[in-house]
Each structure stands twice: as structure tokens, then as C-alpha cells.
Amino acid sequence: MAARNLSTRLALETSDRIADGLGGYETRWRQLGWLWAQMEARSGREQGTGAGMISVVQWRITLRAAPVGDARRPRPGQRLRQGTRLFQIEAVAESDPSGRYLDCFAREEDLT
User: Fold this and answer.
1) Three-state SS at 6
2) Predicted confidence (pLDDT) at residue 45 exceeds the cutoff of 80
3) Quick one: pLDDT at residue 7?
4) Spatial distance between the Cα atoms of 12 and 74, rounded to a whole number of angstroms
5) Does residue 49 have a pLDDT over 70?
6) Which long-range contacts (CB under 8 A, 24 or more apart) does 88-95 make?
7) What is the C-alpha separation between 86 and 4, in angstroms, rounded?
8) How far apart are CA 95 and CA 73, in angstroms?
9) In this predicted structure, what is the pLDDT of residue 1?
10) Which of 14, 37, 57, 78 could form a disulfide with 44 if both were Cys (CB 3.0 to 4.6 A apart)?
11) How does residue 86 score in pLDDT terms, banded at 50, 70 and 90?
12) What's this model's pTM, rounded to 2 decimal places?
């Protein structure tokens, strides 16, 4: 198997629920660390929302593997950040039979 080109630096972030003092909560994102990745756009579409149209792109983001339960292993519900671009992680799976890489299937949304 050919080596992957992990040349894109991404921040791994997780959400924290913070009480707002009025019985509700707000979501804040906290950076967990940096990961090197290979990114491949899979599909894209334009989607209408109540606020207008947004561009939605599905990505396969390949990273070095980490064991289940390890803080370095991304989980659905977390996100990856590249500057102002955000990639919401929807699923994570082993990428190869040897378990050296993980694929994160993520969604990027952008207002158009």
C-alpha cells in the first residue's frame, strides 16, 4: 500500500456545553490538538435553508490511526478546522487493513 500524503494541518476541536445562567446552555468549541491529514472532496451540492442557500461538500479526511478511546482519535460530533473552514465529523473508520490510517467522513458548509 502506498504511503499517504498527510500534508494538511488541521485542528481537532470538541464542543463543551456551558450553562448560560438562564436554564439553558451555549456550545463552545475547544481545540484538542493538531493533526496532519490528506483531504479528498467526495461530493457537493447546494442546499436551501431558511436563511438562504448554502454549499455543502462531503470530505474524506485521512489521518494517522489512534486506538478507540484515545483522545487523538476523532469522534463523530467533533470537528476539524483549517483556518476559518470547519469540517463536521460524521463518521470515523479504519482506512486500511493494517490499521495505520483512519478515514473521517466530514461535512463542510459554506454560505453562498
Assistant:
1) coil
2) yes
3) 95
4) 7
5) no
6) 94/65, 95/62, 95/65
7) 22
8) 13
9) 56
10) 57
11) very high
12) 0.86
Do 79 and 89 meet the contact criterion of CB atoms below 8 Å apart? Answer: yes
Q: Is 47 exposed, middle or buried (0-12, 13-18, 19+ CB in 10 A)?
A: exposed
pLDDT value of position 2: 66
Q: Measured between alpha carbons, how far is 48 from 97 in angstroms, rounded to an integer?
A: 39
| pLDDT 10s digits, 18-41 | 998 898 999 999 999 999 999 999
Query: Which residue, 35, 36, 34, 29, is CA-closest to 13?
Result: 29
Residues paired with 79 in a beta bridge: 13, 88
Amino acid at 26: E
What's the one-letter identity of residue 6? Answer: L
Give the DSSP letter string of 9-68.
EEEEEEEEEEE-SSS-EEEEEEEEEEEEEEEEEEEEEEEEETTEEEEEEEEEEEEE---T
